[in-house]
Design goal:
The complex is a heterotrimer of chains A (288), B (255) and C (336). By secondary structure, chain A is mainly alpha-helical. Chain A is 82% helix and 0% strand. In chain A, α1 crosses α11, α3 runs antiparallel to α9 and α6 packs antiparallel against α9. Classes of the chains: A mainly alpha (288), B alpha/beta (255), C alpha/beta (336). Chains in contact: A-B, A-C, B-C. At the A-B interface, α7 and α8 of A face α2 and α3 of B.
């Protein structure tokens, strides 16, 4: 079959394996963490973190060239995380604070970019992702970052669940909601940086939000939420990667790897919505 | 069963930001004792419970909770039923899983639920009469069922001290009776109970002592000693109360 | 119907059952089947829209920019396969190579680059693809001024680039060296004719009126070669992505008015809006649309600038008529 011939070609190429490794790490972390983004309604905060990475990239490039880009992103993400966690834990509307920080950081980034003319190539790489041209170093860094995010959430999983469901009950049981929120936001920031490499800064939200949203449509309780999200993310990313390769090589249509992956996520969500609307759901009440 | 005192407060004050402050509380609970906290709106009843949990800081006096060294959490040996639920009814969690949350502190972060955890959950569901709805999504339960579910969560903790904030509120008569029976059972097993309520009749059924508060402690002691006209007038400050066979009707008191 | 089942059971060995129980769907068979069908369907669709590319035989050459692709195609002719990476009207300065490009690179025997840092994405692409052929840098031996990478815009430079590419390819595939050299010599003759014609055409305009304002600083070598005066560019940089500040725009408008220039020329790869704004400010004409200049890349097949020679002819003609001259006819070698 022609498709399998192309597939065979795909996995003789080292850049495909690197792309697959990055996506594997990313989907594992994003699937798990995306569930909490969904449960706690942190979509806008994730968007804020995504935009906050941009000036870090620009500044990193200015100080240390292309190799400084990733570290600049990480530092900017860390600073933004701490700021946002502290602010959103107050009883002030956190949306306003997020919006202000998001636009401020982005403006700073634009100013830096217009002062140094050569940053645009690196910037485009981070905005749109460079799935096929990730270097071995970037693969290692991405996997480490994803592993950190995954471990952070796994280690605090019960507290995160409790705190997401019932903050005051969690506090009463002895958990510390502020610390848990900080850990979660750090994990989100890690995923944002890792996803910026793979699918690009502009499409990070698709990878973070969609798997959790889909899993939630199909499970009654917690069981299956996390596993379902990770499985969907992994399968969708794999399909996206292979589709991008196959369409590019087979039909000579230039499709960027990252955008294809994000596209598959969104299509998966639309299919899920459609099926959910058609298939009736009476099982939520726990009856036969 | 240990005879160690469960809770001891000596001229304690709690205060935090927007919560109602509470000062000069001196009281204690021994195993098998039940205390009801009574007072008007905003008198600090909920604050008392949160203060015992450590959620609201102690700003004066000395408090001893039965684990003399209060570490990071009480290892689930205090069960807590909160008053109002900010609980998202769309949250994908089953009743059984909510009750299992009561076991989280015991399980730590890496242990899977063991046989004793599942047994505790099963017992708690049975006691609150919710076994048949165990696998339903929590948000689909009625208000009363949800409250019983949260009570089951507190019970699954296998507490030595149980803190209940307005536990009778959303319950209809049969469930109230069931709750009273449960609390009496727990008492006979040595569990200490501290609850807030404005229903004096129910308090009288379950509790031995009353803590009367109004921003500060008015009185603490056995029921008959505390519920004097003088004390009640001091606590409810000008609000018309009728003392008729210890039935106190407090006008305009609603939660 | 409410089931009364014993609540506590040994679930540890029963996780499959638990996963099945946790799925929220009235008819689980339908839900799971749909999910499987969706995945399998996607895979099947992909198999439909592709045909295999067999591992190719013969000399495989990959070239980066449209200009060096053109040169390389002229040199190689039918003696091998030449694939260009950057396509027409796409900027070479920033580029995200798709999988096909990387696959081509992985199989290429030689890679021809324009050099001088105009392809900043190139090293990543080479690393990712595992390219292990010969790198031919067409800019070898060319005098680079101020780090400007647009070396091909000078026809004399173009000739040198062609020679460099030909000798590079001859080392890669010595069996066809004579073919490459013959093709290169023939093409060089055309380039020489081009240079002559262009100089004659431009010389009819008095030097003081040969004033050039473009989008970005891409034609410096062209300007030097043919004695043109460069007034300024809208984006004061070699990189086409920068944005001019208000002060920079004002300075340029002042320069234009001072120089007495009558035209601003837009480029094929850049949006003409900025050029139009400045032209309106300075009260001069804008050349865009069909009259656009080919600077960064050649045009697509069938357009006026599809090859290097055609693009240069087009540029010269547009400039000369904009400056008020009449274009002289082309010599025999250049007439298609």
């Amino acid at each position: 079959m022609s498709f399998f011939e192309i597939l065979g070609q795909a996995f003789t190429l080292p850049f495909m394996w690197r792309a697959a490794a990055v996506l594997a790490g990313l989907t594992l972390a994003a699937g798990l963490i995306g569930v909490f983004v969904n449960l706690r309604g942190l979509e806008f905060l994730s968007d804020g973190l995504t935009h906050a990475v941009f000036p870090g990239v620009a500044a990193g490039f200015m100080f240390a060239g292309t190799s400084g880009v990733l570290y600049g992103a990480i530092i900017a993400a860390a600073l933004a995380t701490v700021f946002l966690t502290l602010v959103s834990h107050r009883k002030v509307t956190s949306d306003a604070a997020i919006a202000i920080m998001l636009t401020a950081m982005f403006s700073i980034g634009v100013i830096i970019v217009s002062r140094s003319h050569n940053v645009s190539a690196s910037l485009e790489q981070l905005l749109f992702g460079h799935l096929f041209t990730v270097s071995p170093t970037e693969v290692v860094i991405t996997l480490i970052v994803c592993a950190v995010a995954f471990a952070l959430i796994l280690a605090t999983l019960r507290g995160q669940i409790f705190s997401s469901f019932d903050v005051r009950g969690a506090q009463a049981a002895g958990y510390r909601p502020l610390a848990l929120a900080l850990v979660l936001n750090i994990a989100i920031a890690c995923v944002v940086v890792a996803a910026s490499i793979a699918v690009g800064n502009l499409l990070v939200l698709a990878v973070i939000i969609v798997p959790g949203a889909i899993a939630r449509m199909w499970t009654r309780g917690l069981g299956g939420l996390f596993v379902g999200a990770v499985i969907f993310a992994f399968v969708a990313a794999t399909i996206g990667l292979l589709a991008s390769f196959t369409i590019s090589v087979g039909a000579d249509v230039s499709v960027p790897g990252g955008a294809t992956v994000a596209m598959v996520f969104v299509i998966g969500y639309l299919i899920s919505l459609a099926v959910r609307a058609i298939v009736p759901d009476r099982s939520v009440r726990g009856e036969a | 069963m240990t005879s160690q005192r469960l809770l001891n407060l000596d001229d304690v004050s709690f205060a935090y930001e927007a919560d109602a402050a509470l000062s000069h509380v001196t009281m204690s609970i021994d195993p098998g004792q039940a205390v009801a906290i009574i007072g008007p709106n905003g008198s600090g009843k909920s604050t008392m419970l949160k203060g015992v949990l450590g959620v609201i800081p102690l700003v004066a006096g000395e408090m001893t909770v039965f684990r003399p060294k209060k570490g990071r959490g009480q290892s689930g040996r205090i069960g807590y039923l909160p008053q109002d639920d900010d609980i998202d009814s769309e949250f994908p969690i089953t009743l059984k899983q909510v009750v299992m949350m009561g076991r989280y502190r015991r399980m730590g972060w890496f242990r899977f639920p063991g046989a004793d955890d599942r047994q505790a959950v099963a017992d708690a569901l049975e006691v609150t009469g919710l076994t048949s709805r165990a696998n339903a999504r929590f948000g689909t339960l009625s208000g009363g069922q949800q409250q019983r579910g949260l009570l089951a969560r507190a019970l699954a903790t296998k507490p030595s001290l149980l803190l209940l904030d307005e536990p009778f509120n959303a319950l209809d008569q049969p469930n109230r009776d069931a709750l009273i029976e449960t609390l009496k059972d727990l008492k006979s097993n040595g569990v200490g109970i501290l609850l807030t309520t404005h229903d004096l009749e129910l308090a009288r059924e379950v509790c031995d002592s009353i803590l009367l508060v109004n921003g500060t402690q008015v009185a603490f002691g056995p029921l008959d000693e505390v519920l004097t006209l003088e004390n009640l007038q001091q606590a409810f400050e000008g609000v018309q109360v009728e003392v008729d066979e210890h039935k106190v009707v407090i006008p305009g008191h609603s939660h | 119907m409410v089931r009364n089942k014993p609540y506590v059971r040994d679930m540890k060995t029963n996780w499959i059952r638990r996963a099945w129980m946790s799925i929220r769907c009235n008819n689980k068979a339908i839900c799971v089947t749909t999910a499987v069908v969706a995945v399998v369907g996607t895979v099947a669709v992909l198999s439909g829209c592709s045909s295999p590319a067999p591992a190719p035989a013969g000399l495989q050459v990959v070239a980066t920019t449209t200009q060096v692709t053109d040169f390389t195609t002229e040199i190689v002719g039918t003696a091998g396969t030449v694939t260009g990476i950057v396509s027409a009207n796409q900027s070479a300065h920033s580029f995200d190579p798709p999988a096909k490009v990387l696959q081509d690179l992985s199989r290429a025997d030689a890679l021809v680059i324009s050099g001088v840092g105009i392809e900043p994405w190139l090293q990543d692409a080479i690393d990712a693809s595992g390219f292990d052929g010969t790198l031919i840098d067409a800019s070898t031996g060319i005098n680079v001024v101020d780090g400007d990478p647009h070396i091909w815009t000078s026809v004399a430079n173009a000739e040198k680039m062609v020679d460099t590419i030909a000798s590079g390819l001859s080392k890669v595939d010595p069996s066809q060296a004579s073919t490459f050299e013959q093709n290169a010599a023939a093409y060089d003759k055309k380039l020489a004719a081009l240079k002559d014609w262009a100089q004659k055409d431009i010389d009819q305009i008095p030097a003081a009126q040969r004033l050039l304002i473009t989008n970005h600083d891409a034609l410096a070598y062209f300007v030097t070669e043919f004695g043109i005066t460069f007034v300024g560019s809208i984006i004061p940089s070699f990189d086409d992505n920068a944005e001019p500040s208000a002060a920079e725009i004002d300075a340029l408008v002042a320069k234009i008015k001072e120089s007495g220039a009558t035209a601003v020329f837009s480029e094929s790869t850049i949006s003409p809006k900025l050029a139009e704004t400045i032209a309106a400010e300075a009260g001069v004409k804008v050349y865009s649309g069909e009259d656009v200049l080919y600077a960064d890349t050649l045009g697509p097949a069938g357009s006026d600038g599809a090859t290097y020679i055609q693009a240069t002819i087009h540029n010269v003609r547009v400039l000369v008529s904009a400056w008020g001259g009449t274009n002289i006819p082309l010599p025999a070698e250049l007439t298609p």
